[in-house]
Amino acid sequence: MVQDIGEQLRAQGRRMTPQRQRVLDAVASLAHATPEDVVAAVARDGGAPLSPSTVYRALEALESLGAVGHTHLDHRAPTYHLADHADHVHLVCRGCGRVDQCERATAVQFEAAVLRSKGFVADVTHMAVHGWCSDCAKKR
Amino acid sequence: MVQDIGEQLRAQGRRMTPQRQRVLDAVASLAHATPEDVVAAVARDGGAPLSPSTVYRALEALESLGAVGHTHLDHRAPTYHLADHADHVHLVCRGCGRVDQCERATAVQFEAAVLRSKGFVADVTHMAVHGWCSDCAKKR
DNA sequence: TTGAATGCAAAAAATTTGCATATTG
DNA sequence: CAATATGCAAATTTTTTGCATTCAA
User: Fold this and answer.
1) What gap in Å lies between CA B59 and CA B70, rounded to an integer?
2) Which has the closest alpha carbon to B71: A125, A130, A96?
3) Which residues pair with A78 in a beta bridge?
4) What is the CATH number of the domain that holds A123?
5) Are residues B9 and B64 in the same domain?
6) A121·B110 Cβ contact <8 A
7) Chain C: bases < 7 Å from a protein Cβ
8) Dist CA A21 CA B87 (whole Å)
9) Chain B residues within an 8 Å CB radius of A119
10) Structural domain count, chain A
11) Residue B77 lies in a domain
């Protein structure tokens, strides 16, 4: 998977570079990382720091390949993850800020209902669901 | 409803001002407005333009009262609406960008499932669901 | 070799903040 | 009159862009 991304890039006349590999590795190890997180992570991986623009462009390139995807946990920061780590819905607590997740399967009925009533093919994983986790819900 | 917001503000030692009223009116008439939209709308309502910071602060004040709420349709812009216009889920098309909506009721099973499995009290109206509208889905 | 990718610095875009002044209650 | 709200300008924060240089293929 991760190793043939270089070939996919080359197949499109694009290139695999050490920078892109480091960005990909950072996304893989962080699971949910903002561009800023990735910049910080690669700065810690032993190599020279990457400029933010390189990280933004690398994420864009990797996303256009389908190697990574992003989810919006809140308004201020897309978080990137490997494409194969995308099959869940994020639950962001308004109280404590914790991010939990649930199986995408939990939402299949909703997806089906939206498809039936609106013809809309929903991707419930792209933006997080906000609300109150069980602990915070109790306190209210 | 809208008219006793002044009293609610005063009850908290805060104030109702012409600026806040104009912001509230703009939110009411636009239905889904970004702060930028509100700035533009009040500039057209006959009065003097409001400075962006006044609009941001007015929206914050009105939201803290529960008079307005906001939804994230995409990553770059919260959209404000009257609190009583909040009961639907937004569906944003990745193809054409159109924003549709469906009844919150469509998601009750999902909300129930998340509550059951995670104890999480979900507010499905806060962030939009992305996907493909029927027209764009056909084209793929 | 040659065009895509990088790095830097400057530009944008979107909020936020400090502070003097104006206004509400 | 006292404290809150406004307006402006400057500061932040986050992301994008131009361009000369480097490097993958």
Assistant:
1) 9
2) A130
3) A72
4) 3.30.1490.190
5) yes
6) no
7) 3-9, 14-18, 23-25
8) 44
9) 133-134, 137
10) 2
11) no
Query: Look-up: residue for tokens 């009262």?
Result: B65
- For the whole model, what pTM was predicted? 0.91
Q: Is residue B14 part of a domain?
A: yes
Domain interval for residue B14: 2-68
What per-residue string of b and e applies to B35-69 under the rule 16 or more CB within 10 Å gives b?
A: bebbbebbeeeeeeebeeebbeebbebbbeeebbb
Model confidence pLDDT, tens digit, residues B9-68: 999 999 999 999 999 999 999 989 999 999 999 999 999 999 999 999 999 999 999 999
Q: C-alpha B84: how far from its chain's center?
A: 10
Task: Determine the average pLDDT of the residues in A105-119.
Answer: 96
* Percent of chain A clearing pLDDT 90 (strictly above): 87
**pLDDT of amino acid A140:** 84
B15 Cα to chain A: minimum distance (Å): 27
Q: How many Cα atoms occupy the beta-carbon half-sphere of A100 within 13 Å?
A: 21
